[in-house]
Amino acid sequence: MNWIYLITAGLFEVVWATTMKLSHGFTKLNYTIMTIVGLALSMGLLALAVKKMPMSLAYPIWTGVGAVGSIIAGVFLFGDKLSPLTWGFVALLLISIIGIKFTSGS
């Protein structure tokens, strides 16, 4: 269950980062509220995960899921352009997240 909390927390990190951009500096109320809710859910689920997981495992996976998800959201939602080399490093981030999971013993 802790892994579900952790991955879901990372996905909500993508939600709040995306809605923060859509809020245009917190000037659009609906996106501002979505940002706050997404942030609260992300932090709350991370807190649940670290109750039973080592922080040294949970935090990098949470940030990694959020980072990779935000990159993908930026490309698909906002038309961000990434070079092939950048995509290579995104792949390395994803491989690192998976590697941490499989070598953690959790």
TrEMBL record:
Signal peptide, first to last residue: none
Major location (coarse): membrane
Superkingdom: Bacteria
Regions crossing the membrane: 33-50, 57-79, 85-103
Gene3D superfamilies (UniProt xref): 1.10.3730.20
Lipid bilayer topology: Multi-pass membrane protein
Single annotated GO MF: transmembrane transporter activity
Localization, UniProt: Cell membrane
Keywords for the protein's UniProt record, in alphabetical order: Cell membrane, Membrane, Transmembrane, Transmembrane helix, Transport
GO cellular component terms, semicolon-separated: plasma membrane
Family in the record: Belongs to the drug/metabolite transporter (DMT) superfamily. Small multidrug resistance (SMR) (TC 2.A.7.1) family.
Name under which the protein is recorded: Supressor protein SugE
Originating species: Companilactobacillus heilongjiangensis
Taxonomic classification: Bacteria, Bacillati, Bacillota, Bacilli, Lactobacillales
